[in-house]
């Protein structure tokens, strides 16, 4: 009975399917990140919309502890960088380097990210970012990321 109702609605309604209806596959929601870590290369899969730190931690990439996990209400920071009622990242242990041309395409860091990067003990470069503040997008497929060796962090 339900099938006949659905067929009738599609046949007589304005929403006629033009072809087979498919749900998006996992592959459509996935990208790959190339990670250079302590002289070694890893290619890790990541999901569009998650933070780079989440992908790195899922695959247990060493030298990136990410102690604060992006701080409080990270999703709000990634969606709306001018969120006034959040603390954001607080430790800076997920410091990464993103080479050209990728760094030019990524949005500028918001003020909390800049504050954390500038107060750390490690050498800051113009390519320095925090992995917890990078929201992965489709165009970032095959992006290259380098993890600097931080003497203050322990290998996980």
From TrEMBL:
Organism for this UniProt entry = Paramecium tetraurelia
A Pfam family annotated for this UniProt entry: Fer2
Required co-factors = [2Fe-2S] cluster
What GO MF terms are annotated?
2 iron, 2 sulfur cluster binding; electron transfer activity; metal ion binding
User: Cross-referenced InterPro entries, in alphabetical order?
Assistant: 2Fe-2S_ferredoxin-like_sf, 2Fe-2S_ferredoxin-type, Adrenodoxin-like, Beta-grasp_dom_sf
Q: Which CDD domains match?
A: fer2
A Gene Ontology annotation in the biological process aspect, one of them, is: P450-containing electron transport chain
Instruction: Give TM segment ranges.
Output: none
Cellular compartments per GO CC: mitochondrion
This protein's UniProt keywords:
2Fe-2S, Iron, Iron-sulfur, Metal-binding
Q: Could you tell me which residue ranges the 2Fe-2S ferredoxin-type domain spans?
A: 31-151
The protein's superkingdom reads Eukaryota
What family is it from? Answer: Belongs to the adrenodoxin/putidaredoxin family.
Name this polypeptide is given: 2Fe-2S ferredoxin-type domain-containing protein
